[in-house]
UniProtKB/TrEMBL annotation:
PROSITE patterns assigned to the protein according to its UniProt record, in alphabetical order: SIGMA54_INTERACT_4 (PS50045)
Superkingdom of the source species: Bacteria
One GO biological process term: regulation of DNA-templated transcription
Keywords per UniProt: ATP-binding, Nucleotide-binding
Gene3D superfamilies membership: P-loop containing nucleotide triphosphate hydrolases (3.40.50.300)
Name by which UniProt lists this protein: Sigma-54 dependent transcriptional regulator
Species of provenance: Pseudomonas syringae pv. actinidiae ICMP 18807
Length: 184
């Protein structure tokens, strides 16, 4: 992380006291850090976004949901472990964020997450003549590809639910094709 050029720009939303000790560490690692409120932030000039989710955000999740699809950067959420356990909040974080961190911070893990967030690759696997392919560019398909790319590196069982004919098997094959176990 120390080899990054100082052009790596982090937008920190509602950092509060919990996030401010990180600023020095991140600046030393080559990041330019700007702390703003959600209302005053424009994500056009940043590479990665870090938002400290708090109670007032939880009351207005729909506003955040409207913001993220328009954003060209990857977002990392910061929240308490208790908040993450809340069903609606946990689902929201898994759906909209590239990664999340609970307080207190593990600085090394956060730096690794930021580095990974900089790698802007298409989460869809390369199409092959034998592998499963998710066709289309609709918002739900893009969200599904993003979710699959987040789940693929995790060596853990995944439950795929849905009605008959919804494409569960296609999703399972696509997830497996992106996983580390694809050759097994």
């Amino acid at each position: 992380m120390h080899g990054l050029a100082p052009t790596q720009r982090l937008l920190m939303i509602d950092g509060a006291d919990d996030c401010h000790p990180l600023v020095t560490v991140l600046k030393d690692a080559g990041w330019t850090v700007h702390d703003k409120t959600l209302d005053s932030a424009s994500d056009a000039d940043y590479d990665v976004g870090l938002i400290h989710l708090k109670a007032d955000h939880f009351e207005h999740l729909h506003e955040l949901e409207e913001r993220f699809p328009r954003s060209n950067m990857r977002w990392i959420a910061v929240l308490s472990a208790d908040d993450l356990r809340r069903e609606k909040i946990g689902d929201f974080v898994c759906r909209w964020f590239f990664d999340f961190h609970t307080l207190p911070f593990d600085v090394n893990r956060l730096q690794a997450s930021l580095e990974k967030a900089l790698i802007k690759v298409d989460p869809a696997p390369p199409a092959s003549s034998t592998g499963p392919e998710l066709l289309g560019e609709s918002r739900p398909i893009r969200e599904l590809r993003r979710l699959l790319s987040k789940l693929a590196p995790i060596d853990s069982p995944v439950l795929i639910r849905g009605e008959r004919g919804a494409g569960k098997e296609l999703i399972a094959r696509s997830l497996h094709a992106q996983s580390r176990r694809r050759d097994k």
